[in-house]
Amino acid sequence: MPEKRQRPPTVRLRRLAAELRRLRSAADLTREDVARATGINEATLYRVEKARARPQKRTLIALLDLYAANETQRADLLAVQNGSNDQGWLRPYHSELPEEYTAYIGFESEARTIRNYESLFIPGLAQTESYARAVVRGVLPTASRKEVEQRVQARVERQALLTKEDPLQLWAIVDEAAVRRLVGGREVMRTQTRHLLQLAEEPNITIQVIPFEKGAHAGMTGNFVHMDFPDPADPELVYVDTPAGDLFLESEAEMRRYKSMFEHLQAVALGPNDSAGLLARVAEARD
Fold it and tell me: Given 3-state DSSP classes, what are the helix, strand and coil percentages for the chain, each rounded to the nearest 5?
């Protein structure tokens, strides 16, 4: 029987894990110390602290007792635990998508702000359906038609975040290479470029382009997405898609590094108005 696939973590589960790690560190206890004191399996504790498992209520209470958590901390974390498995964003076909991608979709759906830098692609939240299909076919040449359409459907569904009642705030910075590359052909790219211009008019969306003439810049090492969430207590997150696999980064040092990198990219890119001008010229050249 195939192993049951692990459900991707939620923002609340990540918050619970981060708080439990912090409380254990403040109590100056190792996982081995905790296992001896509570009888909780060390491997189970590791999974809980890595947001790979949702602790049972009795396990959480035992940990909070050991860590001498105050009443406010106890109430907060028990409330978080109660809702940490809520994954209403999942669609039936998402179980067939890569686990890292479904995890990303979940985090994105709960985010308040997305700061996305892309060097070769139009950001997923800003892709037209035709462009998305051409990208998936090109990047995954061995994918079946069903796999391609599942990826495209997921990408299109994600874009509803930009138009909901309390819309996601998107700040996208792209290298000019992403705008110039003829993904899917001239017609697909003409439509895609005009779509970017339409999106840039929305108050919750900012689009900047780094022109070729700027030369080398901090983003040339690769793409990344920085997310923060409505509740300040929920840890920020950076997502990096690499050929070796997808990475989710959450340490304070990594957050500082990627925030600084995004600020450098904002400074080197054309302003929103000039970026719109460049996009308009590119679109006109494809008419």
Answer: 55, 10, 30
**35, 80, 247 from 31: Cα distances, Å:** 6, 22, 24
Q: What pTM did the predictor assign?
A: 0.77
What's the pLDDT score for residue 146? 92
Question: CA–CA separation, 53 vs 245, rounded Å?
Answer: 21
Tell me which H or E stretch contains 92. none
Residues 6+ apart with CB under 8 A from 77: 16, 19, 20, 60, 64, 69
Task: Assess contact for 227 and 171: CB atoms under 8 A.
Answer: no
39 conformational bin, left if phi > 0, alpha if psi -120 to 50, beta if neither: left
> Chain-wide mean pLDDT for the chain?
87
| Strand ordering across the sheet containing 237-242 | 205-210, 169-175, 113-118, 224-228, 237-242, 245-249
